[in-house]
Predict the 3D structure of the following.
Amino acid sequence: ASTLGAMYALGQGVPKDDAAAFRYTLQAARAGDATALGNAGSMYEFGIGTARDEAQAVRWYRQAAEQGSVRGDSGYGRALLLGKGGLSANAPEAMDYLRKAANAGDSAAQMFAAQTLITGSAGVARDPPQALRWYQSAARDFPALYGDLASLYANGRQYGIAPDSAKVLEYAREGAKAGDGQASYLLADAYFNGREVAADDSLGRQWIGKSAEAGYPQGLYSYALCLLRGIGGAPDVPQGERLLLKAAEAGVSKAQYEAAVMLFQGGQTVQADIPRGVKLMLAAAEAGHADAQA
């Protein structure tokens, strides 16, 4: 039944059918098959072939973990870390499971364990070197983590990680290729400021535009500035004003302040809207923007 479940899940030799995959997987899980136990947990967690049910996911993940399943360790550890499925969050116990799965190569476990070790948690000491190793490994399956890696090497001094502009560029390129907004933002920064590459405002604008397309808030703001000021290409004030408002609504305090000033008097294509401007100015002040607080 476990093999049939996998065949239907992948569409190998039979038409892909999530409902059939779930039915056969659950049948095998009830018979105690370790692989099926972990797969049943995943299917309940993500709603594959059945309704999402975190409590059921935890039930099957726990049984899988008891039989030494890597997927079981990963799933149960993630649930313990986040307090899902009726469990109380318990970072130290969660890390016991996540470490086993991460050491066995489970990329989801590596990602969650790395995030925990970077910041530390109640009862879990920070371990940046191990966190970076697991981030690097997990990024092969989760390319957005390349953006996190680039950011850590750019701004990770608070976590005990020495700045390394070469690694920022390396990981930013990998993440940007995968469409990650943070990575594209950091790659743009490298081109704008000549960090490990020749300064090139045109390429900087290209990558900051991709960051904005991905919805990265700082990318939206920086691309708005490029368009408003003609950095790296021709100005496009109407689009720049629209993106400035979008960045402000996304919570970028500098954008909130500048959008508020624009709304008080009206822009080239944006009509004056004093109530909205006041709201954004207050938000910028609450976020600590000095000019908004003045």
About this structure: Residues 18-30 form the longest helix (13 residues). The mean pLDDT is 95.
